[in-house]
Design brief:
Chain lengths: 47, 462
């Protein structure tokens, strides 16, 4: 495309079927302890 | 639903429900804003009027690109998750993460401590015994259903005040891994004062992550994180942290230097850059959570100043990209290809459901921020959970049960915010804490802009 550059291939709608296993890290256990941030967590299956 | 914004010279369009992120030119940016509510010919007319120098066929071409993105499910994607996420949060409760407050005691008097200088509003200091800790780990294993990965964070107060028990508990946890089919991920958070070689070596062997508290510049740190007698701590901890961070990096292990900013350092970007200049590569700093009457509490009127600080930081991080001064900032990290599934993104932080806190006497709370609030005690490791009503309340916390979150562009990155903050500021765990919310949105915007800038830099080099 000439007018648009898309930064990512991943589409969230494709995670609906296989997601939800619950194995990934709880967000507050990472580095913050006072907020909820999930966008920076990593899926266990992407490691 | 889409979210469009301009930052640092980039026109960014986030397709909220698919997570697709587009960087577009000016004319496309304007046409996207009108696309859903205006007829095609009118959109093109408006664009031609605004950009007289751009030939019409090029405007049409841009319009067609928008249409094909929509057809590919990368623009104006509908939200089809609500029913699934609500069902998901109703599944049977499984606890897989635990904050173990091994010491309700502390050797510092940090001004903003939510734990009441480690005492959590108790009368006297209390250390967790091995027996209570062991029971807590047994409880975690027994409550974790078929989850394999169990996370245990040693927290306090200050966990190094009870480090022998930490070591015994790690050994106990490891001894149960094989037979229970579980894998423990241990972490700990420390103020650094008692950190020594023995603790560092132990942590390097056993801990997946360590969180090292420091607020940034010396004068800021020493003002907010003094000893009981008011004495400074910066000079004591910094050399230890530098050594520890280097050890962790060499061993390929994670660490974070983590701070809190308050009204005393509204220019907190300087504190982050200070930590980066001390040689730390993994940095996190968070807005303070404080009752509004405290002089260091952040106010609604501070939001624009704080937002600007995130912009300053983001620009500096772009400038440092792929140089030896590069570092990661926890709240700007976005994993565009490997990030979490929609369930993880929308079902909230997990407090009181998959995550709990246990205090020295074995009492269980929904998370570390609720410890010391008697109304939120949900059980004890010796007797189990006895307040299913509270657990049910927490299970209901997700982006679809918070009115403001439901229509928020940042919901897939924030998951509805912190229930503890919401409770402190609105009296309801399902509320929204406005200052935290505004800053979260800003951080998501900056994080995405950084990705756009990095992609541009990569393309330039290629
Ligand atoms: S590990 Fe991946 S699939 Fe499983 S819940 Fe977490 S993000 Fe979703
Ligand atoms: S807390 Fe604020 S930023 Fe987070 S999802 Fe809700 S409205 Fe959005
Ligand atoms: S309620 Fe807040 S502090 Fe507690 S686990 Fe959730 S995000 Fe973290």
């Amino acid at each position: 495309m000439k007018h648009v550059q898309t930064l990512n291939e991943k589409r969230l709608q494709n995670t609906v079927k296989k997601g939800g296993c619950g194995e990934c890290q709880t967000s507050c256990q990472s580095a913050c302890k006072t907020s909820c941030t999930v966008g920076n967590q990593t899926c266990e299956h992407a490691k | 639903m889409i979210h469009q914004y301009k930052n640092n010279g980039y026109n960014i369009v986030l397709d909220v429900n698919s997570g697709a992120i587009h960087v577009v030119d000016d004319v496309t940016y304007d046409m996207i804003a009108e696309y859903e509510n205006t007829a095609m010919e009118q959109v093109i007319e408006n664009a031609a009027a605004k950009y007289p120098k751009i030939p019409r066929d090029e405007i049409r071409e841009a319009y067609d690109e928008i249409t094909s993105l929509k057809e590919e499910g990368a623009l104006f994607t509908p939200d089809e998750y609500e029913g699934r996420v609500i069902d998901y949060t109703k599944r049977p409760t499984v606890i897989k993460a635990m904050c173990l407050n091994v010491a309700h005691a502390c050797n510092l008097s940090c001004k903003y401590c939510f734990a009441d200088e480690g005492l959590y509003f108790g009368k006297k200091a209390e250390l967790m015994s091995f027996e209570v800790g062991k029971k807590a780990l047994d409880f975690l294993i027994a409550s974790s259903g078929n989850r394999v990965n169990l996370e245990v964070d040693f927290f306090g107060g200050e966990p190094t005040l009870n480090f022998d028990v930490v070591k015994e508990l790690v050994a106990y946890g490891r001894s149960r891994e094989e037979e229970s089919g579980k894998k423990f991920r241990f972490t700990f958070t420390t103020n650094g004062v008692l950190l020594n070689d023995d603790i560092m070596e132990f942590a390097n062997k056993e801990m997946d992550n360590v969180v090292l508290s420091i607020d940034g510049r010396k004068e800021i740190h020493d003002m907010m994180r003094p000893r009981h007698d008011g004495g400074p701590t910066y000079d004591t901890i910094v050399p230890k942290y530098q050594k520890f961070a280097k050890m962790r990096e060499e061993a390929g292990k994670q660490y974070y230097v983590r701070g809190t900013y308050t009204r005393n350092n509204l220019d907190f970007a300087k504190d982050i850059l200070h930590m980066a200049d001390l040689g730390f590569h993994e940095i996190s700093i968070e807005p303070v959570v404080a009752p509004p009457e405290e002089d260091y509490a952040l106010k609604t009127e501070d939001i624009p100043v704080l937002e600007e600080q995130y912009d300053v930081l983001a620009k500096e991080m772009v400038a440092r990209y792929k140089t030896d001064k590069e570092f990661t900032f926890f709240h700007f990290m976005i994993d565009l290809e490997g990030g979490p599934c929609v369930y993880k993104r929308l079902s909230g932080c997990g407090s009181g459901t998959e995550y709990v806190s246990v205090i020295p006497n074995g009492d269980i709370f929904p998370c570390h921020q609720f410890v010391g609030k008697p109304d939120f005690k949900i059980g004890n490791v010796f007797t189990g959970i006895d307040r299913e009503d509270i657990v049910t309340e927490f299970k209901g916390c997700n982006v679809y049960t918070r009115e403001k979150c439901r229509s928020c562009f940042a919901k897939f990155y924030c998951s509805g915010g912190c229930s503890a903050n919401a409770y402190n500021f609105t009296g309801n765990v399902r509320g929204v804490y406005d200052v935290g919310c505004a800053l979260e949105k800003k951080r998501v915007e900056c994080a995405i802009m950084i990705k756009a800038a990095q992609a541009a830099k990569d393309a330039q080099e290629a």
